[in-house]
Write a structure and sequence with these properties.
The protein is about 40% helix and about 20% strand. The protein is of the alpha/beta class. The protein has one domain: Isochorismatase-like (Rossmann fold, 3-Layer(aba) Sandwich), CATH 3.40.50.850. Strand 5, helix 8 and strand 6 form a beta-alpha-beta unit. Helix 6 packs parallel to helix 7 and helix 7 packs parallel to helix 8. The longest helix is centred in the last third of the chain and has 15 residues. The relative contact order is 0.20.
């Protein structure tokens, strides 16, 4: 069984920075346990980085969410806490929007076919769901999995609604 773990946007600005929230901080140990488990079992681990530039306010996202965050090469753009150390040497996909086109291309490659693709990180109802949908599109026969204790969103009601949408998209929510 070939397995892939995708750690989505676990960056300082989403945990303790400009868009930080307590729920993001609370999932750090669960994400670390998940990474450790995959690495020990020989599974693959990759991660995404929300990546914006100084012109963020002029972008479509910046106009709808006028909170500068994850500006490339700033402290807020960096991975958070122990996750940063654990992901050293893993493949990174920088993205300037919610879903990663580069991750989609990676998952479409014949040599990167997986039985299970699991996602963890933040924010459940934005970037996690976007990348889960891309994973499902790239590999419709892979089981796409999200553990509730390994993802977080600032709005708990929206988080729960997102889990229901994910189930409807045939994503396994545990």
């Amino acid at each position: 069984m070939k397995k892939l773990l995708i750690v989505v946007d676990y960056q300082n600005d989403f945990v303790t920075g400009s868009l930080g929230f307590e729920g993001a901080k609370a999932i750090e140990s669960a994400i670390c346990d998940k990474i450790r488990s995959y690495q020990k079992a020989g599974g693959h681990v990759v991660y995404t980085l929300d990546t914006h530039h100084p012109d963020y306010a002029d972008t479509q996202e910046g106009k709808k969410l006028p909170v500068p965050h994850c500006i490339k090469d700033t402290a807020g753009w960096q991975l958070y806490g122990d996750v940063a150390h654990m992901l050293q040497g893993c493949r990174c996909f920088e993205k300037n929007t919610f879903g990663s086109a580069a991750l989609l291309d990676f998952l479409r490659a014949e040599e990167n076919q997986y039985t299970v693709i699991e996602l963890c990180g933040v924010v459940t109802n934005i970037c996690v769901i976007s990348n889960a949908v891309l994973a499902k599109a790239a590999q419709p026969e892979a089981e796409i999995v999200i553990h509730r204790q390994c993802v977080a969103g600032a709005d708990e009601e929206m988080n729960q609604k997102t889990f229901e949408v994910l189930k409807g998209l045939q994503v396994t929510v545990l």
